[in-house]
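Shipment paperwork, digital attachment
Item: protein structure file
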Amino acid sequence: LGYATAMLINPNNHALDGGPATAQREKEVVARMAAMFSFEQHLGHLTSSGTIANLEALWIARESHPGKRIAYSADAHYTHSRMCQVIGVEGVAIATDAFGRMDLVALEQELASGTIGTVVATLGTTGLGALDPLPRIVGLARTHGARVHVDTAYGGFFSLVADDSADGVASAPFAAISGVDSIVVDPHKHGLQPYGCGTVLFSDPSVGRFYVHDSPYTYFSSDELHLGEISLECSRAGAAAAALWLTLEVLPLSDAGLGQVLRANRRGALEWHRLLESSDAMTAYQAPELDIVTYFPTRGRMSEIDAASNALFHAAADCDPTEQIHLATYTVKGPDLAKRGHEVEHDAATARIMRSTVMKPESEAFIPAIHARLATLCAR
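Attachment content:
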């Protein structure tokens, strides 16, 4: 509703005169998100996507530590390796542990080389929803003079329920965000926004010096800082800011507001994992840290897991529309299965397993039926 209404005047948040009202709304929602992460001060703005937000964060990383490499988890979003290529910086993939989190021993070895300028920690990997051990990462990075960027495009809003409770998530990784240099979070994921709406935040406003530029045909209407002056993007839909502002008026950034949506998602994921643990037809790949559930048809060989997962994917889709279940696959390697305790024959290098996200609170009530339906399909 907010997006559609604002689009009637098609505001552009690049310059204040292009969308005075929506530019102000953008500044308000960005400040709310900075407060959600306990940033005492900030510089930031909305973006058209998490990819662009991460590009900006890595560009600032390059400018802050020229000539240094950027390290990220092997399970980090592929954006990081691609954007390192775009900005001409060497990226380093750090191995992950049995939970899909960045391996601290491997990270420390790279940091000890003195060549790492920025470490990218992920809170909510796209594949598994894993939470990198941010408190330890921050400590190691600071010891070796490196910056820390947190890609929490997927998991960021879970900071609202990071209280170690039964339907919350681990508190320590999110509490450590206040001590990092930059953050990316995507309102178009758990913020309930239409695409595209990303956000980049910096804890040190002085990084604005890297954005300094001028234009003979814009920024003329006011001496106040225009959003385009602190952004790599030029024209951006002001409607995205209006939509997010309206959403946060209805569902504030609090446990009692948007947090209740996230708790329902979390409960649904935990319930599905519980059902998988007692299932003969399907096996849980690993326990969910957020709301991503991973599992596979119970088979003895990797090639059989791959074939059965592919068959399940198509069987769930190629049926009566009233019974369709939209699934996704996730490719794993033999060692990935082994370090999670799955004893299967490695007769293939990789296998597809299933990956399901419980991102809507309405899904919680349907989890038992979804699980039962998939178990029946697996048994065919």
